[in-house]
Amino acid sequence: MRFILFLALAIEGAIKLVHATEHAKKGGQPIIIDTDLFSDVDDVGALTIANVLHNCGLANLKGIVINTPSQYGPLAASSLSTYFGNDVPIAAFRPITNDTFFDSYYYLYGEYASKLAYNWPRNIKTADSTPTPVELYRTILSSADDRSIHIISIGFLTNLADLLRSKADHISHLSGSQLISAKVSELVVMGGQYPSGWEYNFGGEDPESTAYVVQHWPKNVNVTYSGGELGGDVFSGQHLVQRCPPDSPVLSAYQWYVGRGSTVRSSWDPITTLYGILGLEWVSKIGVRPMLAYANDFGYNSITATNGSNAWVNDMTVTNQHWLRLAEGVTNYSMAGLLDEFYAHDPSLRSCFRYGVLSENFDTVL
Fold first, then answer.
1. Torsion, Cα of 194, 290, 350, 154 (10° steps)
2. Domain Inosine/uridine-preferring nucleoside hydrolase, which positions (predicted)?
3. Domain boundaries, the chain
4. Three-state secondary-structure class, residue 45
5. Section 237-256 average pLDDT
6. Which residues contact 22 (CB under 8 A, 6 or more apart)?
7. Tell me, what's the pLDDT at 45?
8. C-alpha dihedral sign at 316, 317, 319, 324
9. Of 79, 121, 172, 317, whose CB is crowded by the most CB atoms within 10 A?
10. Do residues 71 and 97 touch, judged by C-beta distance below 8 A?
11. Phi, psi (5° rounding) for residue 331?
């Protein structure tokens, strides 16, 4: 109880509103988010974090590519970005379908993507008016500064496999692999189980693309994995009804998906996106010590079966691949509380928040 009370008081007293300027919006870590926005609502949480940190000048959201075929994925992504005042380039997976989500596994979770698409304003009118994922990737990468882009993958790896296989074209004289080597500084992947196991993003829909990306990713580009074991027990979204603006698509998406009077959901994609933007340098960026850490010093990921199962290989010669864990002393509850700060942000304030540096006592109990 002492920790919960102190956390609430510290957040209330430490959050500062900082007016975002147009100059700040152009700064920050350049990112591309590759999302399966369609079924699970944690993609909404992830895109919310990206948009809020974009408006705070800590991220530069260059584009969103969708790796599921429903037209409602790119339209919902546009509605979310438009809600936060951002006109973000979006690419739709082909062929485009009219599918809507139905939970045929648990028979519990509800569809939200089409509802976001048609009940909130959006900058893109139709999914087929968008570029393909490979076209958008190549366009963004070709004009990016060298070794500047972070790609955040929070879904299936089909688009990344297609990018790796892409050839020189009218967009760039470089192949996809060459563009990645030249322009990407880190790939951050929500996928796999660590140190070993099976996870849905890797094996549920397109395990062949998973294996291709893991095996053919350029060796000079850093890779960080966020496994299913990390976000599965971090249940964010608990107080959205009380804290979100009533017109929030984030609130509505969580209500529609989770249902039964709850807005609580696991946090795989939001945690991955938070790391993809902030890395481990949290103190200088949001004023709180890092809540994530690397679980290894060396080694690399490997695909061990045709179903997408993976295992970490300890190899002291490879030092630019990592998998994530919560930092020492950080609890699932405290991580969820931080994520909720982003979900509940009101874009009508035209401002952003930064955490003040919290007291040594807070760091101790965190």
1. -10
2. 31-219
3. 2-365
4. helix
5. 97
6. none
7. 98
8. negative
9. 79
10. yes
11. -105, 160
Give pLDDT, residue 262.
Answer: 97
Bridge partners (DSSP) of residue 136 are none
243 pLDDT band, cuts 50/70/90, is very high
Could you tell me the CA-to-CA distances from 332 to 31, 190, 250, 335 in Å, in that order?
A: 26, 17, 21, 5
Query: Do the Cβ atoms of 229 and 191 come closer than 8 Å?
Result: no
- The domain 2-365: what is its CATH number? 3.90.245.10
Closest CA to 17 of 347, 268, 260: 347
Residues in the chain: 366
Would you state the structure tokens that stand for residue 269, as one six-digit string? 């994609």
CA pair distance 358, 366, nearest whole angstrom: 10
* DSSP three-state, residue 144: coil
3-state secondary structure of 216: helix
The answer to whether the peptide bond before residue 69 is cis (omega within 30 degrees of 0) is no
User: Model pTM?
Assistant: 0.91
Residue 62 φ then ψ, to 5°? -75, -30
- Nearest Cα to 250, choosing from 36, 48, 37, 34? 48
CA distance 162 to 201: 16
For residue 297, the 8-state DSSP code is: S
Residues ≥6 apart with Cβ < 8 Å to 15: 341, 353, 354, 355, 356
Residue 5 has pLDDT above 90, yes or no: no
The phi-psi region of residue 114 (left if phi > 0; otherwise alpha if psi is between -120 and 50; otherwise beta) is alpha
